[in-house]
């Protein structure tokens, strides 16, 4: 049975352009009046808790629980910031959501702001989303004109201003406190936690940071109920999820599915299997920070718990598929180059560790590795984890450890043969 | 150095935020689009406009990959070299661009037309390999499509869009 699309149902409507007229015609902006009329803010928080909605930005934190941390004290301003920094390699769903159906996100933000008592919200868009930001701006203007934003929204007495804020190219601004620093006009360097943003976030006031996809779920929960939502997928990973599938598959793209889908179904049924009839070698299931999986994991369910139990993570939902022409040392070189470039440099372990990982992996790939390099790599990874201001350092170390765990013989072959055994194969 | 119409837009930007400084990065985008790059004079101007020190503005600007503190070409090409694009030939595209343009990554053609940069994942992995020219995506790139694009840039068929 085909899964009923929820967040991407617009895809099945011919000539859908994402204007407010299109959105209204598919039943948009019906959840907002319902939320404003039928729910007290605290009831909405409860409803979202009950739905089981977990954050789609990376950590999978329960959304309603996060909202519940916001102090009720009405004297302090509260902020909601939508994280549209989408920079985790392998992830391309938020860009689609804002470009194709921006009003779904806007409706989600207005309802969520009402739930936490916020009157000023921002969508932090990565700087490269020039077109995405433009479409959001256009949609915001439409929403203001028709009374879904601004003062006294739909006659409810609730006010909200919402703006798009463009970043300027820095992965670390996806980390929520790096994002808040950036939104305050500073370098995007993550803050020491606690205090968490719910207590001291934007301008040191209580702030909720939620991913684009997370917030897009909210109108559907309001409209169709928490019980309906919780009935989709496994009990601890409820609701639909967008999986961004890329790499060596026949049909790369975003697939909206319940998290009960297996890795095998996702790759071989939905994404059409491995290109050119080749064989699957490795798959990264949740953005480049996620440890790698192999053929033996194909029957895993793509929910947060199952992926964690297998030593990886659901992360951002970016599924990168690699066939048997791929050199895992080269993968390690590319992935470590990325974290080295993006480390903000505040913590020694991260700054030095990411530089070393990249340096050692490059030299192994070039056939200049030394026997002791693999132990050096593992020691370095160990030293990078659990000790830093944010988890970028862990995110840089975990994938490399996993490549060594499953493909150690390939690393050893590079060192022994003083060359990359895959040289000249594929496009890599 | 900044047109009145731009300044009006900047005033509107500042008005959005409880704290003025929040407008810094959006303002740097605007000023960069107008001046071409964030020259020392541009940094000075932004600092004066927001009441910050030039060193402070400089320190923020230098943190972000899209803000250029050195002169750049009329067109900016970003080529994604992250994993999904590399799996589908990004390095070949980069080598081809370097040959065709006669420059290395990070450089600008001597006629000042094009600057070439490597970028991290552009959130276009499902249509890899991906590049951006002046903020516009070009996806599922091939050598042939690159050549067509370069021809358009050279004969001015692609104007410079504001990013
Ligand atoms: C290095 C790093 C990069 C991150 N990048 C993103 C990102 O691009 N988009 C995102 O939504 N969350 C990102 N996150 C997660 C955010 O810190 C935060 O957990 C998330 O925005 C919360 O929203 P959610 O609960 O709705 O998922 C990143 C985290 C880290 C440590
Ligand atoms: S772990 Fe790395 S990215 Fe995170 S704050 Fe420390 S240095 Fe910066
Ligand atoms: S890896 Fe190139 S766009 Fe994501």
Topology, element by element:
The complex is a heterodimer of chains A (428) and B (163).
Chain A: H1 20-25, H2 31-38, H3 41-51, H4 63-68, E1 79-84, H5 93-100, H6 102-116, E2 120-125, H7 130-145, E3 161-166, H8 176-183, E4 207-211, H9 212-224, H10 226-230, E5 240-247, E6 253-258, H11 263-270, E7 280-284, H12 304-309, E8 318-323, H13 328-342, H14 348-365, H15 373-384, H16 392-417
Parallel strand pairs in A: 1-2, 1-4, 2-3, 5-8
Antiparallel strand pairs in A: 5-6, 7-8
Chain B: H1 4-15, H2 24-35, H3 40-50, H4 54-61, E1 75-80, H5 83-87, H6 90-101, E2 114-119, E3 131-133, E4 136-138, H7 143-154
Parallel strand pairs in B: 1-2
Antiparallel strand pairs in B: 1-3, 3-4
Bound molecules: flavin mononucleotide, iron/sulfur cluster and FE2/S2 (inorganic) cluster.
Residue share in helices of chain A? Answer: 40-55%
Radius of gyration of chain B: 17 Å
Mean pLDDT of chain A: 96
Choose one word for the global shape of chain B.
Answer: elongated
- How many runs of DSSP E, i.e. beta strands of chain B? 4
- Which pair has the most extensive contact? A-B, 56 and 46 residues
Strand order of the largest sheet of chain A: 3-2-1-4
